[in-house]
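Q: Can I see a sequence and its folded structure?
A: Here is a first one.
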Amino acid sequence: MNGTTPSAPCPGPLDRRSFMRTGIAGFASLSLPGILRLRAENALKADKEKTAVIMVWLPGGCSHIDTYDPKSDAPIEYRGPFGTIPTKIPGTRFTELLPMQAAIADKFTVVRSFTNGAGGHPAGSMQMFSGDTDQRDKPEPRLPDWMTVANYLRSREGRPDTPLPRYIGVPAPSNYTGTAYVGDAYSPFNVTGDPNLPSFDVPNIGLSNADETQRVGRRVALREQLDTLERAFDREGETGALDEFEQQALTLLTNPRSRDAFDLTKENDRTRDRYGRNRWGQQLLLARRLVEAGVDVITSTLSGPLCGRVNNWDDHAVNHHVFDALRFRAPAYDQAVSALIEDIYARGLDKRVLVVVTGEFGRTPKVNYQPSTGAGNASAPSGTKQPGRDHWPRAFSNIWAGGNIQTGGVIGASDKKGEDAISRRVGPHDFLATLYQHLGIDYHKTTIQDFNGRPTLLVDHGKAIPELTG
């Protein structure tokens, strides 16, 4: 892998059908008979405060040079047009696009030396989500993503003290994730609507009408409505668990705590304004509400119209004018992320909740120019030459907050042009080990049986990053 862009146009991260369908089908993607069996095996009681993770995912890859790792002394074709600003971390500067995050940089740690071994969206994402070392782009994952694994392992600790699922996407990454041999029982409960809309509602969560609750309780023929559930039951061979599954579904439907957790109207206007009255801001506010309500793993994907014409961070020149795209999305991104981090500390969640903001890779340090393929937000009319940055896995940045970690620092460095990580190189397996360790999962020894019944380690190489573990 040399970090160059393939000659074929990059389509960017492609959408696939959300796990959440209609009615109770949204619940079917998160709890199937397998989870019931596991909960019956050696139920464990947590002997310490339950930890949680919020992952903010930037699909397509954020330019490290234009955000957290600016190169002021590099030639203009590398450094780009943005000035730099001081941060709360002495001697550390971000670009001018991130003033709110710069002002609270003492509350998080920046890693500037991440790398992975794949230059395509599927392979790069699968490396970050699951540790798959394959550099080829595959249509679906070979290994389960870390969110699924955490859900699976946490389910063995017994029933949660909340009616909510352990793993919720707001929304979950829609590309290159999967349960693989762990099974669909541990997929996310996926919230796909826009929390900023007055009409926002999560179907079949916390029904409040008594008649409707009774009607739902009479739905004993779930199998006829849920073809996804049918297939999963057939694969698991545990149709006898249907009654208990139905009871869990009804608990989610009828428990008022479920609806309360998703109800953003319970937040005061000042808090909602602080996060930003847009989809990204309200997604991250909802993520904070859910983690307070006891959810273990929350992912929030920052994509869609706030990104620009192609709805993601894949800033090839054919997709976006890279610098216009960054200017376009930076206000909402900076505000939402800084509000989440501040709120985690202000509400006393910083010891147990780890926040990580990342994408699958960075963007090419050297700017190139190509004709736009279409007009829209952050993109000139078709045929107009505009600047872009392509895929770059050899060096990229991400940020970490909460989790009782050391904050106000920088880990690692890239070279003078931002092309290669030159100190404290870390990669996907270190990323996964760090998350697992925070969640109390022994990544050194824990195994899960693969499709062939072979015990497979969660992390076969790599270590948790010391500064990012409490």
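Q: Show me another, different protein.
A: A second, unrelated one:
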Amino acid sequence: MNKILYIDDAPSMRKLVEMVLGSQFDLTLCEDGAQALEAIRKEKFEVIISDVNMPVMNGLDFLALARKEPNYKFTPILMMTTEASREMKDRGKALGATGWIVKPFDPAKLASIINKVL
């Protein structure tokens, strides 16, 4: 079973993603980028999905630091956020984001997006 890391400060979003993906993937949940950075230093994930706006460490800062980790230079990292501006997407792409999913997302399509990047 593929290991997925999902990062979001909203408990409701973590619960929704767990309901949508929990039966198909080995899912680990984190509340912010700092927690997620600790997690990726302890184990290897095949795909990472991260919110952008979070306390402690936001998703873009996490993305930049994750890409510096030897095991995560090429791992698919998807940003899932309410941020939909071209400028924000361009920043994410420049930092190494594999893709951008705008919330609210279609739960039925989330697993297929993950399978596509795997």
